[in-house]
Amino acid sequence: MGNSDDDVCGFLPKIDDKSPQGFLGRLKLSELRPTQNGVGMDEVKAKVKGLQDKSGGKLLDYLLPRTVPIVIGNDGYYLIDHHHLGISLWIAKGDIDVPVLVTRNWAPIKGDRFWKTMADNDWVYPYSALGAGPFNPNTLKQHVKDLDNDLYRSLSWLVREDYGYVKDASNPIFAEFKWGSFFRTRVIFKEQLTCKKEDSVNLTLKKLMHDDPDDYADKIRYAKHLAASPDAAGLPGFVGRSR
C-alpha cells in the first residue's frame, strides 16, 4: 500500500512510549489503536474524496491542523479523536505517517486500570456500531481500517453540516455519538424495518436516499427538527433553532 505520501510527515520525530505529554511527533496509521468501534461511512466517503487529490505539501497542510491526539498506555498508542480521518486516510493513502500529539503518557498504566482512567476522562466509547453496549474495551477494534459503519453517526454528521448543532473546541470528544444516540431512538428509516439483520450495519444515508428518496427526505427533515427541539437541549453544541 506504499505511495509517494509515505514520508510527508517524516520531518517529525517518531513517537515512542517515552514521549512526554504535549509532544508532537508521528506514527503510522497502523500503530493507532481506536477508542471507538464505529464511524459514519457517509462522512468517511466524503473525506476520502477530498483526500484523493491531496499530496505532498497540500496533504501536509491538511494534516497539521488535524493532528491526532493520542494517549500512550496499555502497551499501545490510542487515538482519542479523528477516527474518521484515520480510516479515510487509510483508504485514500494507505499506511502513511500522520502527525500525532501526546495528550497523556500513561505508559505504566495497563489493563482495567487503564480503561477506567480512560473512561473517567470520557476518552473511550465502548459501544458497537449498532448502539449496543457498553462492552469491555478489550473488544474494541485494533485498527482504524476495521471500524464499522454507524448509520446514526452519519446522521449526526449530516445534521451538523446543515448547522443543526455546532462543533467547537468546547464540545466533548464523542459529541457526535451523543447526537447519534439521540437520533437512534427517534428516527427510523423504513428500510431499516425490512432489511436483513446482517445487512443493517451496511446501511448508509446515500443508500437510503437512493432506495426510498421520499422516506429519506422526510426523516432528514424530522432529524433536523428534533435537533432544534427542547428534547435536544442538553446535547453538546445545541443551537435550539430550526432553519
Description of the structure:
- With 243 residues, the chain is an alpha/beta fold.
- Helices cover 38% and strands 13% of the residues.
- The chain has 10 helices and 7 strands.
- Helix 9 packs across helix 10.
- 36% of the residues are buried.
- The mean pLDDT is 94.
- This is ParB/Srx family N-terminal domain-containing protein.
- It holds the Pfam family ParBc_2.
- It comes from Candidatus Accumulibacter affinis.
Q: Which labels suit this protein?
A:
single chain, about 240 residues, alpha/beta, Conserved hypothetical protein from pyrococcus furiosus pfu- 392566-001, ParB domain, Helicase, Ruva Protein, domain 3, 2 domains, 5-stranded mixed beta sheet, two-stranded parallel sheet, 10 helices, 7 strands, about 40% helix
Helix-strand blueprint:
Layout: E1 24-28, E2 32-33, E3 38-39, H1 41-51, H2 56-63, E4 68-73, E5 76-79, H3 83-93, E6 97-106, H4 111-120, E7 148-149, H5 151-161, H6 175-184, H7 190-194, H8 197-200, H9 205-211, H10 213-227
Parallel strand pairs: 2-5, 3-7, 4-6
Antiparallel strand pairs: 1-6, 4-5
Helix pairs in contact: 1-3, 5-6, 9-10
By secondary-structure content and strand pairing, the structural class works out as: alpha/beta
Number of domains: 2
Q: How many strands appear in the DSSP assignment?
A: 7
**CATH architecture grouping of the largest domain:** Alpha-Beta Complex
Shape assignment: globular
Describe the largest sheet: 5 strands, mixed
Strand order of the largest sheet: 1-6-4-5-2
**CATH homologous superfamily identity of the largest domain:** Conserved hypothetical protein from pyrococcus furiosus pfu- 392566-001, ParB domain
Q: What is the terminal-to-terminal distance?
A: 44 Å
The tally of helices reads 10
Radius of gyration: 18 Å
Sketch the topology as an H/E string, one letter per element.
EEEHHEEHEHEHHHHHH
Write down the CATH class of the largest domain.
Answer: Alpha Beta
Mean pLDDT over the full residue set = 94
Tell me the β content.
Answer: 5-15%
Ranges where pLDDT stays below 50 over 5 or more residues in a row are: none
- Per the CATH scheme, the topology name of the largest domain is Conserved hypothetical protein from pyrococcus furiosus pfu- 392566-001, ParB domain
Helix content: 25-40%
